[in-house]
Amino acid sequence: MKKTLVLGATDNPARYAYRAIHQLKQHGHEVVPVGIRKGQVAGLDIRNDRPAAEGVDTVTLYVGPQNQPGWYDYILDLNPKRIIFNPGTENPELEKLAQQRGIETEEACTLVMLSVGQY
């Protein structure tokens, strides 16, 4: 299964990041939730620091492009295999930086990918 860091994690059930964390866990993926505020989702603590995470396969973004620049170094230094830009998080600048480091990028919806078996 794919270790996934969810950037923009929240304990608000109305948010897509919340739903994605639950779905990722239900599909057997290890999840590292990182958000602005501490809390809990799906039995996991939401980290509001920049935790070192080894072996991250995927970073799935739920942070808008205007708030991403402060996260660039953290995301890229995780050296994930891919970054998923969920709807509303598309960012050509970060995509280019990632691709220059050999990181695959996808503009897609994590929830849809999970539901159709393409995650």
TrEMBL record:
UniProt-recorded name of the protein: CoA-binding protein
Domain of life: Bacteria
Every CoA-binding domain range: 2-114
Segments passing through the bilayer: none
